[in-house]
Amino acid sequence: MPRVKPVLARALRRTPLLYLDVAYRDRVRRLGLKLEEHGPTGSVKDRSAIGLLQALHDERPLTPGTVVVESTSGNLGLALARLLPSIDCVFLAVVDPKTPLATRTMLTERGAGVIVVDEPDGHGGYLLSRLRRVRDLCDRNPGYRWPNQYENWASPDIHRRTTGPEITEQAGPELGAVYVPVSTGGTLAGISAHLRRHRPDVAAVAVDVRGSLAVAGSAGRRLLPGIGASRPSAFLKGPHGYDRAVHVDDIEAIAVCRILAEDVGLALGGSSGCAVRALLTDLENGRMDDRLAVCLAADGGGKYRDTLYCDDWATEQGVVKEITAAEEQLRREGLFFDRKHQEH
C-alpha cells in the first residue's frame, strides 16, 4: 500500500512566471502570466487536488479500492485521475457537455469513470445538475468519498500555502495586482489570504464571466469551461475575499486568447483569456497603477484546439462572427503582445 501523504507531497510542482509587454490604447505595460499549465496535468487544479486529497485522507484514510467521486468541468478531474491511481484508489468524474472532448478522452485513458450530465441547471450551465448527481451517487453508495471542491476549505488553503507565495516571490516588490479567474473561488480565496497577511499593498482581483453567479452577476449563457458558476462561490462571501471584481465578456476573452497565440505563440485556456481581458479593462478605466500586474493563467490551450481556437466550433455555437469582430476591435484599439522577457 503506498504511503498517501508522501505521494501527494511529491506531486507538488512550482510553475513559472512569464513576462510579456502588452500594448493597448496607446500605452505599453508589462504583465506577468503565472503559467499553471506547467503543472503535472497542466492546470492550477493540480494544487487543488493535492490539498483536497490530503484533507480527505486526514479525515479518514484513503485505503486501496476507495472510490472518490467529484463534479468537475475538467481540470480538477484530470488532476484527480492522475493522483488517485498512484494511491490505489478509483475515480469517478461527473462532467457535462461543455467539458472538452479531449479532456473526457484523457480522463478515460487514465482509468477514470466518466459520467456526463446533460441536464441544464437553469442558470446558464450544468453545475447544479452535476452536484445533484454526485449527491445521488454518494447516497446510493455510502462508501464513496466526495472531496467537494466547492465548499472544502482545503482548496483555498493549498493556494494560500503554495500559489500565493510563489507569485509574490517571483514578482517581487513591484507586484501591484493579481488577477484570478473564479469558478469555485478556492484559488482566489487562497491567494487573497496570502496577500492579506504578507502583501496587503497588492490587490486581489476576482475575474468572472458575464452570465456567471460566482461573483455576484446574473445568470446567462456561458461558453467557457473553467470559469464562472451557476451559484455564488462559498469561499468569497466575506468582506476580505478580494479587493474588486471584473466581469468580462467570454467572446472578448476568446478573442484575447487568439491574439495572444498569434502574437507570441502562447495558447492559453479561456479562463486565462478572461484574466488578461480583465486587466485590459482596468488599464482602460484607469484602475491600475504603474506596478506589475500578474494574471493567473489557470491552464494552457492544448485541450481547447477544437473549441476556443477552432472556427468550426465557433460556427456551431453561432459566435464565429462575434469572435472575429471582437478580434478586429481589439486590434483597432492597439492590442499587441510582445515576448521580450524570461520566465522566472
Taking the sheet with the most strands, its summary is: 7 strands, mixed
* Portion in beta strands: 15-25%
Our measurement of the CA-to-CA distance between the termini, rounded to an integer number of angstroms, reads 38 Å
* CATH class wording of the largest domain: Alpha Beta
- Sheet/helix structural class: alpha/beta
CATH architecture annotation name of the largest domain? 3-Layer(aba) Sandwich
CATH fold category name of the largest domain: Rossmann fold
Runs in which pLDDT lies below 50 for 5 or more consecutive residues are none
Q: How is this fold's topology laid out?
A:
Elements: H1 4-11, E1 17-24, E2 27-35, H2 45-59, E3 67-71, H3 75-86, E4 90-95, H4 101-109, E5 113-116, H5 127-140, H6 154-171, E6 175-181, H7 186-198, E7 203-209, E8 244-248, H8 250-264, H9 270-284, E9 292-297, H10 311-317, H11 320-332, E10 336-338
Parallel strand pairs: 2-9, 3-4, 4-5, 6-7, 6-9, 7-8
Antiparallel strand pairs: 1-2, 1-10
Helix pairs in contact: 1-2, 2-3, 2-6, 6-7, 8-9, 8-11
